[in-house]
Amino acid sequence: MTLLVLGLNHKTAPVDIRERITFGPDIIVGALRALTEAEGAGEAIILSTCNRTEIYCCGCNIKPDQLQSWLARFHGLDSSDLTSYLYLHQEHKAVDHLLRVASGLNSLVLGEPQILGQVKSAWQTASDAGTVGKILGRLFQHSFSAAKQVRTDTAIGDSPVSVAFAAVSLSKQIFSDLSQQTAMLIGAGETIELTARHLQQQGIGQIIVANRTVARAHELAEQFGGYAISLTEISTHLPEADIIISSTASPVPILGKGAVESALKQRRHRPMFMVDIAVPRDIEAEVRSLRDVYLYTVDDLEEVIQENLKSRQQAAEQAAEIIELKTAEFMGWLRSLDAVEMIQSYRGQANTIKQQTLEKALRMLENGCTPEQTLEFLANTLTNKLLHTPSSQLREAGSCGHRELLEAATTLFQLDK
Asked: What is the rounded distance in angstroms from the CA atom of residue 263 to the CA atom of residue 239?
C-alpha cells in the first residue's frame, strides 16, 4: 500500500514560491479530479494554506517524480523550479507528518489551532469531490483524533500565540496607544476574526472590515463595534486606516502601490502599518518601498512569534510522544489490511467446503440415512477437509526444516509447544 505526501511549507520555501503553487477554492476540485483520473492516483487530498501546500496520495500508481511534474505543470512551472523546496514523506513518515501538521507542531506558530480546521476543510473538499477512499478517510479522521488528544492532554494551546497575535503585537510596537488608531481588516475568515479579537482586547479605536461578501463583513464588524465596506471601497477608506491587516483567498493582489501612495498623501504621510498574511499576497510587494509604510508578510512575523513560543516547547515534547503512539496505532491498522484479503479468501474456501458437504448431507437424509449417520458424516468430512491443506503444508515445512513456519503455526493455531 503506497502512502505519500509531497509538499512545501514556510520552512522550505519563501512566500514568493508558496504563492505560485496554491490551490484556491475555484481550482482545487478540478485539481483533485485530475490527480485521480488523469494521473492515476487512487485517493488524493490537497491541503493548501498560506503556509503550506501538500498533496496526500494513497494506493496510487503515481510516482513521486510524476507527482512533482504534475504539480509544476498544473501551475505553469518547470519541475526543476520546485525541486529544492519540496519534501516527500512515505508510509510511516507520511502518517507522522500529517498528525504533526493537524496538531500544530509543524505550523509557523507552534500549536496554533487554525490548522486543524484547515485540515478538516481539505478532507471535506476532497470527500465532496469523490477523491477520498478507505485509507485517506481513515488517516485524516485519525489525525483529527490525534490533534484533539494533543490539545486536551498538553498545554500547547495555553499561550495566546498566533499569526494574528503576532500582527497585533507588531502594531503595538509602531503605535504604542492603539486607542487612537483605526484598523482596516481585509477579509472575514478565521484569522481576521482572531485579529479583530486581539485588537479589541488591546483597545483599538476603530475597526473597518472589508470583504468581497459585504454581508459577512457586516456580521464580523458588528461583533467588534466596527463598520463594513466592500473590497471596491478600500481605496476610499484607506486614508482613515493606520493599521491594515489582510488575509483573503484572492489569487491577485487587492491593494496596489498607487492606492497606498494616494492614501499617504491624504494622510500627510502619517505612518501606515500593514501586515499581509495572505498567500498569494494581497498587497503588492512594491508597497514596501514607500516611505512611511511598514509592510510585513507572514514570513516577517516569524521572529515575533518565536519570542512567544518558549512556554509551548515542553508541551510540544509531550505532544510528540502522543503523535508517535498515534502513528504506530494507525500503521498497525494499515498493516492489518494486508491480512484482510487473505482472511476473506480463507473464509471463502471454508464456505465452499461447507456448502458442498452440506449438500451431500442433505442428500443422505433424502436417501434414508439416519440423522445420527448424517451428522457424523458432516462433522468428519468438514474436519478432514478443513484440516487437509494446513496439515499437508505443516508436514512439508517439517520435512524441509522450515522452523519459522512451524513456530508461526503454533502461534496462529494457539497450540501447546
From this structure: 5
Q: Tell me: do 177 and 286 sit in the same domain.
A: yes
Partners of residue 276 on adjacent β-strands: 246, 297
User: Is 57 among the catalytic positions?
Assistant: no
pLDDT tens for each residue of 102-113? 999 998 878 888
Is residue 41 within 8 Å of residue 62, measured between CB atoms? yes
- pTM summary value: 0.65
User: Is the peptide bond prior to 113 cis by the omega test (within 30 degrees of 0)?
Assistant: no
For residue 190, the domain's CATH number is 3.40.50.720
Which residue of the set 50, 57, 58, 60 is catalytic?
Answer: 50
Distance of CA 161 to the CA centre of its chain: 20
Cell representation of residue 173: 510596537
364/271 same-domain check: no
44-53 tens-digit pLDDT:
999 999 899 9
**Residue span of the structural domain in which 114 resides:** 3-153
- Considering the domain architecture, whether residues 120 and 26 belong to the same structural domain is answered as yes
